[in-house]
Amino acid sequence: MLQAYGSNTRAASATTLECCEVIDAIRYKAGFLPEVQLAYEAEIKTLWVTIKPELKPVFTLQLLDSLVKIQSAIATLWGAPDQYHGAPVRFLAFRGTGPFFTLGGDLDFYLDCLAKNDRAALAEYAKLSIEGAVWNAGGLNGLVITLSTIHAKAIGGGIDAPRSCNIMIAEEQASFVYPEIKFNHFPITAVAILSRRMGARAAERMLLSGEEMSATEFMEAGGLEAVVPEGRGESWIRKYASETLPVHAAKTALFSAFNRRAGDLREELEHLGQIWTDCMLRLNPSAISKLQRIAQTQDRMLARVYQRPTTPVLAAS
Description:
The chain has 317 residues and is an alpha/beta fold. 55% of the residues lie in helices and 13% in strands.
């Protein structure tokens, strides 16, 4: 019994050391990673990325930058063909926390850019959104299978980052809505990302209607691979990773092949990024005022949820 206990303890210690080594290697290569939390499960070779925006549950410039740095670091560390068999990360899984998965794009950042007429900053935001989606869709150049689990309401452009993954699931209480059309703008990557999964007509209906879908409705429209009971999203991914490890090479090859067959995603997204930036800079004062009111509404809603004071939003000049 003592010998068995000692053996198990050494195995657990080795696993803990491996987890620390993988995360430390990624952090060393990526640099500063605000607004995310990393966890590694060695037995299923899965790196978990928990998105944790600091002020609002939105996709900030800092969050987008951290996600791209993580993707790039994994590809740089273990993406060479001769490193595949020893690569510790075979699955890259994204998850959220709190009462919302995401409220979408960072309206406060948009408003600040519009007040300054800062095209470069808006273009950088679009560039990072595009880069993250391309990495996800391509499985980091065929190295990993990318997955995401949605546990709560997901709004607007923040849906696209997890949907760009090879597999996206949601818990049954989650919901999905793109309200941007009602405020005279559109999410940067949604047309390309949704069309690849739902087909162009279904994606068009969702983006033009601005209507909310339940997780089941979104799946029936082609937007999800699975709907699972509340609290079971992460366990679904763990089960999938465990069952997929023996056929990982074949599945990554198939995901890469289907991604290639769907067309040049980067080219399409770069075009969308350009027209999104132009669209934002063409917003008239009335549309900008609507964005300000939405940002203020978000502040009040979050203040009720988290019981914290609101921050006044300054009018754009």
